[in-house]
């Protein structure tokens, strides 16, 4: 009978990463269909609501020898926000939050990249609703592979936390028991697959 340690089911939930490329330097196009730009927020101070953007694109230049020469650029269609609830999606796309009609895109452009082994730190400018603020995102390389179609891919996972009020996303409602309906702190998480350009 197999004996599992307490964390075995989470530590080995996925197959081990591959390493098809010794040097992942190059120009890449992010494969949004196999990536995720997600977020989560506390709701009513008791639960977490999660969502993602479903329409976005991006490019990256990776330089392992000179990480500072690396860069990332993302463009997100604001109205593609999806939390699994149509009414909530519509409210988030409205002028109360993202105002997608007047601000159809969210953008991120890196300003500085550093590397420590498989860990990358990407600092850049995040623009939401016409407001630009700096953010720093910590990423971990999850490997590289050549897929069955001949594409060379690299993967990264990362995340950060922001205060939505810094971008003018201030709508809220007070709770009778204290606190507010939607947390100001928003957690962002990224699972990125990128294809090296031919």
Reconstruct the topology from this structure.
Layout: H1 8-11, E1 26-30, E2 36-43, E3 47-53, E4 56-62, E5 71-77, E6 81-82, H2 86-93, E7 105-116, E8 119-128, E9 131-146, E10 152-163, E11 182-196
Antiparallel strand pairs: 1-4, 1-11, 2-3, 2-11, 3-6, 4-5, 5-7, 7-8, 8-9, 9-10, 10-11
Give a structural overview.
With 198 residues, the protein is mainly beta. The protein has one domain: Lipid/polyisoprenoid-binding, YceI-like (Lipocalin). The chain has two helices and eleven strands; from the N terminus they run αββββββαβββββ. The chain has an eight-stranded antiparallel barrel. β9 (131-146) and β10 (152-163) form a beta hairpin.
């Amino acid at each position: 009978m197999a004996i599992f340690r307490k964390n075995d089911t989470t530590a080995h939930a996925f197959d081990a990463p591959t390493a098809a490329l010794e040097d992942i330097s190059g120009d890449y196009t992010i494969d949004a269909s196999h990536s995720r730009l997600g977020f989560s927020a506390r709701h009513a101070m008791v639960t977490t609501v999660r969502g993602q953007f479903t329409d976005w694109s991006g490019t990256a230049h990776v330089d392992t020898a000179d990480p500072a020469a690396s860069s990332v650029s993302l463009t997100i269609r604001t109205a593609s926000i999806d939390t699994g609830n149509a009414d909530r999606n519509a409210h988030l796309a409205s002028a109360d939050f993202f105002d997608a009609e007047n601000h159809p895109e969210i953008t991120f452009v890196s300003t500085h990249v550093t590397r420590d082994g498989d860990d990358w730190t990407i600092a850049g400018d995040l623009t939401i609703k016409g407001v630009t603020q700096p953010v720093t995102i910590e990423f971990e390389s999850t490997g590289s592979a050549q897929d069955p179609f001949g594409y060379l891919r690299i993967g990264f996972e990362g995340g950060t936390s922001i205060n939505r009020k810094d971008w003018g996303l201030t709508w809220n409602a007070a709770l009778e028991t204290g606190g507010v309906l939607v947390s100001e702190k928003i957690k962002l998480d990224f699972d990125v697959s990128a294809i090296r350009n031919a």
